[in-house]
Amino acid sequence: MKNKILFSILIFLITFLQNSCSSKKISQKIIVASSGKIESLDPARASTLKAIQLISSLGDTLYELNSEGDLIPELASEMPIFSKDKLKITINLRKNIFFHDGTKFNSNSIKFTFDRFKRIGTMNYILGNKIKSIETPSEHKVIINLNKPSSSINGLLTSVNLTPISPTFYEEYKNKFLNEKFVGTGKYVLKSFSNEKQLITPNLKYWGEKPLNEGINFVGYSNSSSLFGALKSKQIDVLLSNSIDDSQRSTLNYLSKNNKFKEGNSPFTELSFISLRTNIYPLDNRNLRLALAKSLNRKLISEKVSYGLRKPSRSIIPPILKKENQGLWPKYDYSEARALLQKEEYCNGNILRIPLTYRSNVPADKLIALTWKEEVKNTLNDCIDIQLNGVESTTVYKNLSSGIYTAVILDWTGAYSDPEAYLTPLLSCNEIVEGICKKGESVYSGSFWGSMKVENLFLESENIEGKKRLDKLLEIEKIASESIPYIPIWISSQKAWSQNKISKPIFNGAGIISLSDLKVINE
Amino acid sequence: MSRNLNKLFNYSLLKISLIPLMLWIISSLVFILLRVAPGDPVDAILGSGANEFSREMLRNKLGLNESLINQYFSYINDILHLNFGLSLSTQEKVLNIILKSLPASLELGFFSIISAMLIGFPLGFLGLRNKGKKTDYFVRIFGIVSYAIPPFWGAMVTQLLFSVYLNISPIGGRFPIFQQQPQITGFIVLDSILSNNIVALKDGLYHLALPSITLGFLLSGIFSRSLRVNLDKSLKSDYVNAAFCRGISRKKIIINHALPNALLPIVTISGLTIATLAGGTLLFEVTFSWPGIALRLHEAISQRDYTLVQGIVIFTSLLIVSLNLFVDILIAYLDPRIDY
Questions:
Q1: Under CATH, to which class is A269-493 assigned?
Q2: pLDDT tier for residue B52 given thresholds of 50, 70 and 90
Q3: I want to staple B167 with a disulfide (CB 3.0 to 4.6 A). Which of A49, A233, A427, B1 is the partner?
Q4: Which range in B12-16, B158-162, B322-326, B331-335 is most confidently predicted, on average pLDDT?
Q5: Which of B48, B203, B284, B303 to mutate to test the interface with A (most CBs of A within 10 A)?
């Protein structure tokens, strides 16, 4: 009798689970998963990659960067026109475009969006004091007046944070955030929003090419293992790689090579580097900084930590932004490092002790630090001793400008696609005294390095364009690479994996996946 | 009887009067610990790229430039008015965030306790019935092992087994990605029943099954062991012997005499376990991406969202203190040996 009851319970459970399993195949929408959740869909607040990804599907920017890094008009009808003194940019807008709430997109909406971002935007510092005012001479023409010439404004015009929003819909929210709704002009319309799940469906009245799928379900999992497991067990269709562990990245890369999944890669835009405090002993000595730079075996670190998936980099400007992959910063050469250290009377009993801080909540940072320490132990054991110190990232950011870290591992992704978005935050300085930055961006990056020559070059670069400007910016990087306030380690790309029944994920030049191009293949 | 009730009432009043004091101590501790912890919300929100001007602006906006004393008094004043403030990172009302995530934790906790009892009690009985035999040893070892397994590890193993290899369970979350969950009370199972939505009920239970059974399994050891020990003790009591001598059947003795007495300590254990689960099981929710209050707390801590952390801690403390109070009063009422 008891066995019969137990058997019945077992049968019930199996039937229940089987029935429940069958319900997963109801939807034809594509399920895209990534880690974490979206706190806000307000472009003025969005800072996480996931939020930016979603907003870029719900709205259009004035311009977009293609995968080659070229500017392509989106809501603008043509390329921006600069006045002779470079203080005025005229942008003509596309006509007959409507927001999701049915209101018309026009120059007022651009003004509303820019002004609102400048007023309340969390990342409004990316505008700095570049924009003076915005004029709307006609319904489809915008004039942006600048405080000073700025070539990087092109990059800013592609920023998802400046995605035009409907002034009518956001009237109540012009001075505060609207987190759970979004009304833009994009290919998709927001159907439902919760912090963990979002559903977007095609905008049937979209002005351009329509999406190739019936909609996207966005879902967030709270840890890397769940994401990995969900893709492997086919519970999700596409996985975005932000914050997935390197070992799992490597496995997915391997499985993709064996045709189990499809892998898409964005351009390499995320730079990892070591910031060296140049204003105080011992790293105020250039030779010691150079020796440290030469002791860093990037290739080994890339292979051991990221299984070769992150590209060793001797540059702080991503390759896509300088059209070539040249390394300006010192190469790995431990014998030269030894010679330099000996010149400074280290080695043979006098060991240079360098406290290296890494962000304890970023797994790759710890592995970079450990690998470098071990490498130095093998090659320069009698010269350098790297002392590791793990600190949580928010604490590191807070303390960077107070100058308590001799050397610290950080990363950086430009807020917009322009070399300046990498150089300015690391190298610019407002107040320089005897080569030391007292006030400015390099203080907040922990290096305290400053150069008047670099500042002048930054100013000169504002007045030129194209190849000349790029050369000027490369000159800045060259000066910095000779002084070594930082040691670039590697540059990473975003990755996405899709099931074989879905098309391969494609990224644009800003590292954003084109969700509208995802389609179900085997139906 | 009425004298006893009066005494119980006085005892309850004394216990209730201690709640504000406990909450004040807890809230002050949370306030101090958060401020002592390195890092601040501005850095968590803006990252390392923002300039000092933007940081200062945000710091001012969030009220972090006020002196600590002012911040503390304004915080205590807000709590006294049941105002937990706005989340620093989302600017959403903290109370709304808590009320949105609490049902998920409570639902998981409730079903886990049910699973724990369903697994633990029969095993406890089984062990006692076969005292000194192999089954008994197995039940005792099971009790120790299940209690000793770290919940996050147990969660990861079951997730890997049932969701990845066997693929018979969702990997995480509370409801299917592509469906809208019924929203009445926030408890999916209850809402599905209230809205007569069988599909939603099935989907809700499907998502709830793995985390709640796993957690229930891990908790069942406490129930099986405590039932076995207490029932064994009761069965050795004089009043049970007397009952046997009167010729009352073993079944009746266990159900009517031994079990009620054996259950008293279990009520205490259950109360404490429920109270703990109400506050969420942190790593368990993280592993299963369960959108409960513990997962929210985890995120708030990493974002240095002071107001949200404070709100969640105070709210869950209030919940735990209240449940403990309830258990204390219940035990005092049920157990005549307790003097109050």
A1: alpha beta
A2: low
A3: A233
A4: B158-162
A5: B48
CA distance A80 to chain B (A): 27
pTM of this prediction? 0.79
Size of interface A-B (CB pairs under 8 A): 152
B-chain residues near A124 (CB < 8 A)? 54
| SS3 of residue A19 by DSSP | helix
Q: Where are the domains of chain A?
A: 29-237+499-517, 269-493
Distance from CA of A172 to the nearest CA of B (A): 16
What's the burial of A453, exposed, middle or buried (CB within 10 Å: 0-12/13-18/19+)? exposed
H helical segments located in B87-150? 94-129, 134-148
Determine the 3-state secondary structure of B215 from DSSP.
Answer: helix
pLDDT of B217 reads 92
**Tally of domains within chain B:** 1
- Domain residues for the domain of B213 are 102-299
CB contact under 8 A, B38 and A444: no
Establish if B58 belongs to a structural domain: no
For A29-237+499-517, which CATH class? alpha beta
Two structure tokens written together for B26: 């807890």
B273 belongs to a structural domain? yes
Is B19 among the domain residues?
no
B105 in reach of chain A (CB within 8 A): no
Q: Between A2-22 and B198-235, two packed helices, what is the crossing angle to 10 degrees?
A: 150
C-alpha A111: how far from chain center: 26
Pick the residue from chain B with its C-alpha nearest to A193.
Answer: B180
Tally DSSP H helices, then E strands, for chain B: 15, 0
pLDDT digits (tens, 9 = 90+) for B245-276: 888 888 888 888 888 888 888 888 888 787 77
Shortest alpha-carbon distance between residue A52 and chain B (Å): 15
Q: What is the mean pLDDT of residues A350-361?
A: 90
Q: Which of A17, A226, A425 sits opposite B289 (nearest CB)?
A: A226
Establish if B22 belongs to a structural domain.
no
Give the pLDDT confidence of B220-236 residue by residue, as tens digits: 998 898 888 888 888 88
| Domain containing residue B245: CATH number | 1.10.3720
